[in-house]
User: Fold this.
Amino acid sequence: MIRILIADDHAIVREGLKQIVAEENDMKVLGEAANANEMFELLRKDKFSIVVLDINMPGKSGLEALKELKALYTSLPVLILSMYTEEQYGLRAIKAGAAGYLKKVSAPDELVKAIRKIVSGGRYINESLAEKLASMFESRNRALPHELLSDREYQIMCRIAAGKTAEEIADEISISINTFYSYRNRILEKMNLKSNVELTQYVIHNKLIELE
Assistant:
């Protein structure tokens, strides 16, 4: 039996994933978590075959939770589930130890296939992400400015470029306004940019966010 733990802060998403898995005789969702703390509590109590982890959760982000999870449970595979494109977070997720990266819109068609491949010891990445991984290894000595950012800085950069206010961003990721501005100033300094406008232009030019 493939024992699945789903960590996603939206109950409706967890229910949808459970319904997809329910059609399989050898898979069962045996744990649900709405945030990283709940996920680690479940991991301490029970054994799972795979964790399906949302990359965008309140408080500790999916990427932060992924790194901690892989440090504590090195052999437990993780499939990152995300509303974001591979350009935004796919590379970072794989580099942080994820065994696969799947967009939420693809879950109805690909979730079961992804889980089976990962549990059997493989990786689940689409062709686009595979090409980006290859390019990353080829050009590892020519890092782009945004690749110098920490995961938290990268997360904040994308939100700024998406037009969110300082207050909205601080609330979404559970930090103070002062901490937000410290991050923003560090992002601008690392990337040698002068304003949010320049940062947004950079993000759009490098296709790091999807435009509506």
About this structure: The chain has two domains: 2-138, 145-205.
